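Good morning,

Attaching, inline, the backbone tokens for the sequence recovery test we're adding to the shared suite. The designed sequence is right after.
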């Protein structure tokens, strides 16, 4: 995968993302790809100034003005003057305009770009219309069958259902989705990372057992595993989630497929802290998001952990020039 442009949509203006960018760009000078930030330049400069980060920006109007080794930025209008404030729906148009600008620019390029987006508030921006930003971007790009992959070099995880309330999970897992997701992740590991996927698939029920007459393991998960094995994909399971993440088990695999969000997100964050990134597969472009939320409670305090963004940029640097 050849990447020329890294588009960074700032997202929620009153999140810790500006602080995290300040921590990265103040320490990192040798960036080999063209970075184009989409957001309000005055707000970003003011926030970074308050946090004592001195970052120079190259404000541009057109993509052909973007330069290597500089932080290029295309300004997006934002009417609020507060440097730091609480998250409200008054930022929604600004966030929407930022994403719209990205999609406008993406049409000028083929596949030599990727997207990094800052966090947004599900409550105020998504307004329960979408389960998460993954689904929002899927809708905007008219993409189907997108996959959430939380990537770490040692161990990656992927939930079959994303930000779905737990009471609906059993209704939204099926054999076809498990098979499609595993194939998509396997292809990504082979074609983009030049790695062989070794998959562990977790069960849904405690100990992969149920007193119910319908067993998701027997009727959905095991049949999906059989199909994947016939396709010569290295896959084992189903495994009981409560003991799977012991070292002796995870050392045998590099990808774990869970049935719901917290089943795999909780252990990987416990294992690797913020040394992981959220990758969305199945979009017309590669989308990467640092694995943190807006965290408005830490806004302006300069105490946020930037490791996930550093990990994202390190991952991108290893992609083909």
């Amino acid at each position: 995968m050849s990447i020329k442009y890294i588009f960074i949509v700032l997202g929620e203006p009153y999140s810790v993302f500006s602080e995290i960018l300040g921590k990265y760009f103040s320490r990192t000078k040798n960036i080999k790809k063209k970075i184009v930030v989409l957001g309000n330049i005055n707000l970003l400069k003011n926030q970074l100034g308050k946090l004592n980060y001195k970052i120079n920006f190259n404000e541009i109007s057109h993509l052909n003005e973007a330069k290597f080794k500089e932080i290029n930025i295309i300004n997006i209008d934002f009417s609020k003057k507060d440097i730091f404030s609480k998250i409200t729906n008054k930022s929604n148009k600004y966030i929407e305009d930022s994403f719209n600008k990205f999609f406008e620019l993406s049409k000028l390029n083929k596949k030599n770009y990727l997207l990094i987006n800052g966090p947004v508030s599900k409550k105020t921006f998504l307004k329960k219309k979408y389960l998460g930003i993954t689904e929002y971007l899927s809708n905007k790009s008219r993409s189907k069958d997108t996959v959430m992959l939380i990537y770490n070099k040692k161990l990656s995880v992927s939930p079959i259902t994303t930000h779905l309330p737990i009471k609906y999970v059993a209704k939204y897992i099926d054999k076809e989705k498990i098979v499609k997701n595993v194939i998509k992740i396997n292809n990504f590991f082979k074609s983009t990372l030049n790695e062989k996927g070794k998959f562990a698939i977790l069960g849904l029920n405690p100990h992969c057992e149920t007193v119910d007459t319908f067993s998701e393991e027997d009727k959905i998960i095991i049949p999906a595993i059989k199909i994947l094995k016939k396709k010569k994909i290295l896959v084992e399971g189903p495994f009981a989630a409560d003991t799977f993440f012991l070292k002796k088990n995870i050392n045998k695999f590099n990808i774990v497929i869970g049935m719901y969000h917290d089943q795999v997100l909780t252990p990987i964050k416990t294992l690797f802290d913020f040394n992981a990134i959220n990758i969305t597969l199945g979009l017309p472009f590669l989308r990467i998001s640092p694995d943190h939320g807006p965290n408005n409670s830490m806004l302006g305090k300069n105490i946020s952990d930037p490791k996930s963004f550093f990990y994202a940029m390190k991952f991108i640097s290893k992609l083909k020039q």
